[in-house]
Write a structure and sequence with these properties.
alpha/beta, 122 residues, 32% strand, three-stranded mixed sheet
Amino acid sequence: MLRDSHAYSGFSSNDIAKTRHFYATALGLEVTEENGMLTLHLAGGGKVLIYPKPDHEPASFTVLNFPVEKIDEAVDRLATAGVQFERYEGVTQDDRGIHREYGPPIAWFKDPAGNILAVLEG
């Protein structure tokens, strides 16, 4: 029934202006705003809706993954743009925050609303 639907994901933010600036400036994504909500335009035609929610609570899991060819380069560029990478207790990460032990190399960071994002090699 929904096979041909162009589905998209969404999550909330408690500060749409800061969130728009972060995604457009630090991450370099195309971001549009309509009716007080943001749309992230992703490579390949994907979209993500970010909607305002005054009582927003960040997700405790990764809400958006960005595959990259070379994680070291991506982490360096994001760090230069002001992105701070998360450190998790019990997770082996190098000095830049990249976890390389299981699965593809991955590094986690948060948007201004505290939602968890990741870059991963692959």
